[in-house]
Design brief:
The complex is a heterodimer of chains A (518) and B (364). With 518 residues, chain A is of the alpha/beta class. Chain A has three domains: 236 residues, P-loop containing nucleotide triphosphate hydrolases (Rossmann fold, 3-Layer(aba) Sandwich), CATH 3.40.50; 172 residues, Rossmann fold (3-Layer(aba) Sandwich), CATH 3.40.50.300; 75 residues, no CATH class. Helix content of chain A is 32%, strand content 26%. Chain A has 18 helices and 24 strands. In chain A, α14 packs parallel to α15. Chain B has 364 residues and is mainly α. Chain B has two domains: 85 residues, no CATH class; 252 residues, no CATH class. Chain B is built from 14 helices and no strands. In chain B, α3 runs antiparallel to α10, α3 packs across α11 and α8 crosses α10. The chains are: A alpha/beta (518), B mainly alpha (364). Chains A and B meet through α10, α11 and β20 of A and α1, α8, α9 and α14 of B.
């Protein structure tokens, strides 16, 4: 046990809503290793790391650093002990420079002013020490995601972090950025740093990690050398059963176009064209994938098609109807459904019941109202049916939805959006941040929906997901379509990455094939 | 294995909410008692009248019920508006204008018995609805903060009403600023002899049920609730958020206006309000106590009415100022509104329960 730099013993954490996030978890990390922490969402990885980083306090258990028991009650406390964390959502001030972000909270002072020269020097020194290529004077808002992540890592290193926690670091990166990150992580390891690597992506774990701890339902269910386990072993341990990582589906038989988009241009609130002249068709019985690094216009497509955002120029036609002057309800009445990207903000209202969340798209229809009152019996039956069919784990339809886990919340959203048998379904990041079981379930439902004749737009930052699920796909880069693949089977991840990063772009003719009805 | 009843976290939360309100009230009353002991030469007598005075005679209890009527109206009004997440304070102005409207109908129109008060109350409701809709429309159209615009609006209503009273309704022979006497066809009759309890109690009881059904059993109430809970979610789901906000303010305003009308016709023989009556603001206290649920509004309104009358009796019988009650009110609201109050205790309960459940599962 002597080589364990960090030991967490018997950690139990219960959240205010009664959710037991960690139950007697033991977790230990050796000095100078990259240690993978895996588990389904809701398995307790994030909670365990939040406890380690002082964001949450555990109800029982203790933490040992180099054999000495320590108490961590805040992130600054954690940093004092040499523990640094890179969050999934970056904690940077976009309007400040790299150097200013780097020194935030530990600003070098000249009299009572911040010494910016010194800050730049500090940034350069630490970047040089760890071989990171970074411009201290650049503004964070102008930088790509991969660089922002480097800044986060450097920030932790500048504060003397010996143990680095990386929370799903590759979730937002392109394949190229990911491999660059891995090279850097390996270098950090050589310099004696210890890294805790939280991830869902088993392949990456195989590639980079030395040891692995697997959590399931809040308990540690395994600790091993990564080389001893296959991807299948890990996934078995995570969910306790065989998860089929491949999506099984028949070949698509697309029919007429349901959605026609022509020369769609969107100008955002900063006056920037976030979509430029985008044209494509989505056909009945087809899953049309939209790949791309986030923020390249995918969300704008989802929002304009569903009416959440008005478009500036161009045409959107759903089943031959121009939706320009249509309200969201008008569009939904055309049998359009929408699984939103940000499910907690748009997809649900947390305080109200599962039932009230499921009926939000249909409560006003005649069939759910009788003599001016809601037809409670019919509503209850339908809601119970949804809960059953979509395997929502809950204590009943009256339970406030906020008490459910992320995966179950998404199942409720999907139940609402898919149970109305839509003609067009806009599905944005359907499996982000939800557990493997729920992910598999949601993906299966998407394929079933297609087989029932729905036209599906699938937007996802998860490359495997778009590639596996889509029949055809486009790649978005900088508000434009950079590639169109009529058959997703003929694409490699590497190829997609190049189009996503804008290294390559197809000819207008090739992209023009995304229009079915010329 | 012990077969203990398994509670869900939701049941604990619900029970806890009740517990928390009770604790808040208990603490507030304890502070009131302390104040009484410090400031009074006859603390026990004061205490006696404060807590039991309202029950000492039918008349006293009648006073509680009389006060209960407008407070319930106001509570319902605020509950509907707050459920839509609109902190519209114009219930005060709506209450005032509703009373004025009823007075105009009572004095200026000749209608048969039975029809007269109905028309008067309806006019009051319409005026109230218009008043409360104004901040709602401003919010929806131009994003004006409804708290500010509604507070300002209350003054406009007050001075508008004072103008009407002075130049349209004034009876110079009354000897003070007041309208002509209401004809007997217009007033609400006393239904329990020896008290002032008037027919308004029947109307308000009916409205409690109606508003509850409206909020929890109709599609409009549903739209109001989801808009209040998460406007973005409501919009995404296809709810017309703007029209829903305005609808809720119209309904809330109508309730306040009807409340004002009922109060004027039930309690007075002339209209003589020259300042805001304050019921609209009381409605906020009641609605917060009732968690914006119309079903709990009567309980909260009764509680407040009881405290107020108790304090009144106490101040008449002893040397204590009725302001003690204001302190009690403030404390209760503070403690009920403070979300984190007793949170640690709640968390411990839930932790314990979850662990027991886990043990049971493992045992099984």
């Amino acid at each position: 046990m002597a080589d364990n730099i960090l030991v967490m013993e018997n950690i139990t954490k219960v959240y205010p809503n009664g959710f037991v996030a960690n139950k007697n978890v033991n977790f230990s990390v050796k000095k100078g290793e990259i240690h993978a922490l895996v588990g389904e969402n809701g398995a307790g990885k994030s909670t365990l790391m939040k406890i380690l980083f002082g964001v949450e306090t555990s109800d029982t258990g203790r933490i040992l650093l180099n054999g000495n028991e320590i108490k961590i009650d805040s992130p600054s406390g954690a940093i004092k002990y040499g523990i640094g964390m890179v969050h999934q959502h970056f904690m940077l001030a976009p309007s400040l420079t790299v150097a200013e972000n780097m020194v935030m909270g530990i600003e070098p002072k000249k009299f009572c002013f911040i010494d910016f020269e010194k800050a730049i020097k500090m940034t350069q020194d630490v970047a040089k020490k760890y071989n990171f290529d970074i411009d201290p004077k650049a503004y964070v808002k102008d930088l790509p995601v991969g660089v922002k992540q480097k800044i986060e890592i450097l920030k932790a290193l500048l504060r003397g972090a010996q143990i680095l926690i990386l929370d799903e670091p590759t979730a937002v990166l392109t394949p190229q950025e990911t491999s660059e990150l891995f090279i850097q992580l390996k270098k950090l390891k050589e310099q004696g740093h210890t890294i805790i690597f939280i991830s869902h992506k088993l392949r990456e774990i195989k590639e980079i990690c030395d040891r692995i701890t697997i959590l399931r339902n809040g308990r540690a269910v395994g600790e091993a050398e990564v080389s001893e386990l296959s991807e299948q072993d890990i996934s078995n341990k995570m969910v306790g059963r065989d998860v089929i990582l491949k999506v099984e589906k028949e070949h698509a038989t697309p029919q007429e176009s349901v959605l026609k988009i022509r020369n769609l241009t969107v100008i955002n609130q900063f006056g920037k064209e976030s979509l430029k002249n985008v044209s494509f068709d989505v056909r009945k019985g087809q899953i049309f994938g939209i790949a791309g690094v986030e923020g390249n216009g995918q969300s704008e497509i989802a929002e304009t098609v569903t009416g959440l955002r008005s478009h500036s120029k161009g045409l959107i036609e759903i089943k031959g109807v121009n939706i320009e002057k249509h309200t969201i309800r008008d569009i939904r009445n055309l049998k359009v459904s929408h699984v939103p990207e940000d499910r907690m903000t748009y997809g649900i209202a947390g305080e109200i019941s599962i039932k009230d969340n499921i009926i939000s798209d249909r409560y006003f229809k005649n069939e759910y109202n009788k003599h001016g009152m809601q037809d409670t019996k019919k509503i209850n039956e339908e809601v119970d049916q949804c809960i059953k069919e979509y395997l929502v784990k809950c204590s009943g339809r009256e339970q406030p939805i906020r008490m459910l886990s992320g995966g179950n919340i998404q199942k409720v959203v999907v139940a609402r959006e898919f149970s109305s048998s839509p003609d067009l379904a806009v599905v944005n990041q359907p499996t982000r941040g939800i557990d493997v079981g729920a992910t598999e379930f949601v993906r299966k439902r998407i394929v079933e929906l297609r087989d029932e004749g729905t036209a599906v737009i699938l937007i996802s930052a998860d490359l495997n997901e778009v590639m596996e699920l889509s029949d055809s796909l486009i790649v978005m880069y900088d508000g434009e379509i950079s590639a169109y693949f009529p058959d997703s089977k003929n694409v490699t991840e590497h190829e997609l990455g190049e189009y996503m990063l804008g290294i390559k772009k197809m000819s207008p003719e090739e992209i023009g094939d995304a229009i079915y009805e010329k | 294995m012990k077969n203990k009843q398994v509670l869900t976290s939701k049941t604990i939360e619900n029970r806890f909410e009740v517990f928390r309100v009770v604790v808040a009230i208990a603490i507030a009353i304890a502070v009131a008692l302390l104040l009484i002991f410090f400031t009074s030469k006859q603390p026990f007598e004061a205490l006696y009248w404060f807590l039991l005075g309202p029950l000492k005679s039918l008349r006293n209890f009648g006073n509680v019920v009389q006060l209960f009527i407008p407070l319930t109206f106001a509570g319902l009004s605020i509950a509907v508006m707050f459920q839509c997440n609109q902190f519209n304070m114009a219930a005060e102005g709506a209450f005032f204008l509703g009373g004025l409207g009823a007075a105009i109908v009572a004095v200026k129109m000749t209608l048969p018995m039975g029809v007269h008060p109905v028309v008067a109350i309806l006019v009051g409701a319409v005026l109230g609805a218009i008043v409360c809709a104004i901040p709602g429309i401003f919010k929806v159209k131009w994003g004006a903060n409804e708290v500010v615009s509604s507070l300002m609006l209350n003054y406009i209503m007050l001075f508008l009403g004072t103008y009407v009273l002075q130049y349209v309704l004034l009876d110079p022979s009354a000897g003070y600023p007041a309208s002509n006497q209401f004809p007997s066809t217009a007033t609400l009759s006393v239904i329990i002899p020896k008290t002032g309890i008037h027919a308004g109690i029947i109307l308000v009881a009916f409205l409690v049920v109606l508003v509850y059904l409206f909020m929890y059993k109709t599609k409009w109430g549903y739209a109001i609730r989801i808009t209040g809970q998460n406007e973005k979610f409501a919009k995404y789901s296809g709810v017309g958020v703007g029209s829903t906000i305005i609808l809720s303010q119209l309904v809330g305003g109508a309730l306040a206006g009807a409340g004002g009308a009922t109060q004027v016709l039930g309690m007075y023989t002339r209209f003589s309000w020259t300042s805001l009556p304050g019921y609209g603001f009381d409605g906020i206290i009641i609605s917060i106590l009732a968690k914006n649920n119309p079903a709990y509004v009567p309980l909260a309104a009764f509680f407040l009415a009881y405290l107020r009358i108790g304090a009144d009796i106490m101040s008449r019988k002893t040397d204590i100022a009725p302001e003690v009650v204001a302190i009690v009110q403030a404390l209760i609201i503070l403690l009920v509104a403070a979300k984190m109050f007793l949170d640690k205790y709640k968390h411990r309960l839930i932790v314990k329960n979850s662990q027991e459940q886990l043990l049971q599962k493992e045992g099984a």
